[in-house]
Structure formats: C-alpha cells, structure tokens
Amino acid sequence: MAEETLTKDSILDAAESVLRKFGLAKTNMSDIGRALGVSHAALYRHFDGKAALRKAVVERWLLGSLAPLEASVREEDAPERRLYRWLQTLRAFKRERARKDPELFAMYAALVAETEGALEEHLQHLMLQLTSIIESGMAVGAFACEDAGQSAMAILMATTRFHHAAHAAEWELPDSDARFEAIWKLVLNGLASRT
Amino acid sequence: MAEETLTKDSILDAAESVLRKFGLAKTNMSDIGRALGVSHAALYRHFDGKAALRKAVVERWLLGSLAPLEASVREEDAPERRLYRWLQTLRAFKRERARKDPELFAMYAALVAETEGALEEHLQHLMLQLTSIIESGMAVGAFACEDAGQSAMAILMATTRFHHAAHAAEWELPDSDARFEAIWKLVLNGLASRT
C-alpha cells in the first residue's frame, strides 16, 4: 500500500488480521507495517504506538454495535416498545457476531477484557442511548423512575447475560429467549408508572 | 492415609490441591491417589473416574455458597428485606472468596466453566431458595408477580454481574455498590404490588 493512501481504517483492518494470527502478546507495530507494506514511521503518523493502535482496534469493534441501536433511539413509537427493541437489537447484534465468526468474537472478547477502560467506555456510550429512551418515557409519564441515568445503568447491568461476551456460550441455548423475556417483564414492571 | 479412613471429603481436598498445582488437563486419578498415599483402586471405590471426581469437586465448591444463604430463606422478616439480604449474602460470599484466594477462585471459575451442566445445576439450587422467598412475599401480598419461579430466574439473571465469576474483576470497583443498589431498586419495583 502506498503510504500516502494509508488510512486509519486500513491500518485497523490490518491490525485485526495480524492480532488474529499472532495474538496480542506477539503482535508488534512492525508486523502490522509489514502486512500493509508500509514503513514503521508511516504507521506512527496515525497511531502513537501499539497501545494506541490496540485501543483504536477495540473501540472500532465496540462502536460497531452502536449504529444499529441508534435507530431504536430515534424511532417514533411508545417508549416501552422502543426500549424493548433497543435491548433486543443489542442482543441480536452480539449474538450474530458470535455466530458469524466465533474465533474473531473470542479474540475481541479477550482483547476487550485486557484493554483497561474499554468496556467501561462502551457502557457509557450504551448508557447515553438508553438514557435518552428512558427520558422520553418519563416525559410522557410511561416510566416512573426518578433518575433516567441510574435506570439505564440498572437495565444494562440487569441484561448483562445477553450482551457481555463472557456469556456468549449461553446465547444459543433453547431457554435464552424465555430468560430474556422474564428479565424484560421485571424491568418493564420496575420502570412502570404506578398511576 | 490408611485406605479404610479415606473419605469423600479427604479425596476432594486432595483433588483440589492437585488440580491447583497441575491444572485440569494434566491431573489424573494416579496423581490424586499419590497425594493421598492410597491406591488407584481405593479412589475408585469412592469415585467412578476422573469425570465423576471432577464433578464432585466442582459441586462441593458451588454448594459452599448455599449454606450461608439458607439463613435468609428461613428468617422471619419482611420478604423485601429477606430478598435483599439473600442477594447481598450471595454477593458478599462470592466477593469474599475471590478476595481471600484469587488463584483458587480463578481455578474454580475455569473448572466450573469447563464442567458441563455444573453452573446450570447450581442456578437451580439458588432458584429454589429464591423462589421460596418470593412465594412468601406473594402470600402476604408484598410481591405481585405471577410466577415465583420465573421471577426468581429473572432476579438471578439480572444480578449476574454480582455473582458470576466472569465479573469478579469488577467486584472491588468503587461503584459496584451503587450499581447493585440501582438493580435492586429496579427489581424491587418490578416485584412490588401495585395496590
């Protein structure tokens, strides 16, 4: 690749392949430069070293789930239905990723776990979307919670089993749907207005 | 150890030490017999092979959490408080184990994950206790849920972050308490009678 056409995204693609092949411990910037056919220095113009590059790889992976969720945030519908759809979209997105390429999914799960702050930052992004749905439910009197942000955190934590990679092995089990629905019922009831 | 004084528990103790030292793949019945100074045949009088022994080791570890929980099931108090105490006891028990001997905790976490059905069986035990608390709350009109067993499952799933070993790294974080309380609030509200 010519160094002047090198983009962040092409570097991240190459880093993903190299990481997949060699693992985090054995991958260095030279391997990624070699895979792209560019110099060490060209890489450093985009990323300030292995730690920065790795963080960017992880972020791009995690951000991938936000776009499909964004639709549920924007749509016009009853807040309960938007909330349900948002949670199901998150769940389906993760499950589909794990199903499509289990090896890549496992690599990223390990990479995320090893990258300090990555998962917390991702939770913050998810929280923002969720908070916005809950706020609109509060505005129309559908949800009676006091603090939309706190409720968003509680809902994210309560649905851990369906979006945290540590539980991917359960996602294809026959009772996964029933378990999700049981939590959903509890959550919805917990949010509901008492009037 | 004299073969006639060999007990299931002494074998499980020895198996734990050997597993800890060598890991699951490299441990066999002979290693455990050697650690106890007894014959292969003596071990087989108690356990029908490595798989059975390993299952028993895992079960003993998981059952350890049930005894302290049993107290919250039996106590006389408002169902909301018993439920809260049960969840906090489970959480504290797991956290204390992880804190006291992180290496042993990690070994068991891996062992549990690799032992088919072990975690599901453990969930069933927990569910029974939880269901009994919820039923007594339904009986006095404190909880309005329709199906105690389904609510018990939902609550166990919703509190995954605080008792599943995959999340042990978060248990000492400063906001762990706040997150737990946020879920508790949602759960309690979700169960509460609307009258």
Automatic annotation (TrEMBL), chains A, B:
DNA-binding region: 28-47
PROSITE patterns documented for this protein: HTH_TETR_2
Keyword terms, alphabetized: DNA-binding, Transcription, Transcription regulation
Pfam family, one: TetR_C_27
UniProt keyword annotation of Transmembrane helix present: no
Lineage top rank: taxon: Bacteria
Mitochondrion among keywords: no
Coiled coil: none
SUPFAM superfamilies: Homeodomain-like (SSF46689), Tetracyclin repressor-like, C-terminal domain (SSF48498)
The HTH tetR-type domain, residue ranges: 5-65
Protein name (Swiss-Prot/TrEMBL): TetR family transcriptional regulator
Species assigned in the record: Paenibacillus glycinis
